[in-house]
Design brief:
Blueprint: E1 10-11, E2 14-15, E3 17-18, E4 35-36, H1 40-49, H2 51-84, H3 86-90, E5 92-94, E6 97-98, H4 99-142
Antiparallel strand pairs: 1-2, 3-4, 5-6
């Protein structure tokens, strides 16, 4: 008995293939040639190779890699300055507030600014394209769009 569930891929006839009642040439009107049903893996691989997906990924990488590198360098500079130049870090800026305190608070401020910049970048440059890709992929997995 054939399984008529598009999400069921492990049929008796083999992975990703579906057979209908009857065989070609047996004289039955309901005979249908075996046809290939695209698996979810095939669909996601096709989407991954698409120019739209590559563009979304490229936009992500163009922001995240430089931002992460800049933040890491800023953090390492703070740690190296704290260990290699304790006199500089102990220099008072205003009252009891010294350079180390200002730089430490700067680390927190930088974290919040980077989070805001990432969210803004995602909203303006990637979210719409990623959402369109998501809907296209969902339609493909439902069989609405033939790949």
């Amino acid at each position: 008995m054939p399984v008529d569930d598009p999400w069921y891929e492990a049929t008796d006839s083999g992975r990703g293939e579906r057979t209908e009642v009857g065989a070609p040439g047996d004289g039955r009107s309901d005979a249908v040639v075996r046809q290939r049903v695209h698996s979810a893996a095939d669909i996601y691989l096709e989407v991954q190779r698409s120019p739209a997906f590559q563009e979304v990924r490229s936009r992500y990488r163009r922001f995240v890699f430089p931002a992460a590198l800049a933040f890491l360098l800023w953090y390492l500079a703070y740690v190296v300055a704290a260990t290699a130049a304790p006199g500089l870090m102990a220099r008072p800026v205003a009252g009891v507030v010294n350079v180390a305190m200002v730089a430490g608070l700067g680390q927190f401020l930088t974290t919040f600014l980077l989070t805001w910049a990432y969210a803004r970048h995602a909203r303006l440059r990637r979210d719409r394209a990623a959402l369109e890709l998501r809907w296209d992929t969902q339609e493909m997995t439902r069989g609405v769009v033939q790949p």
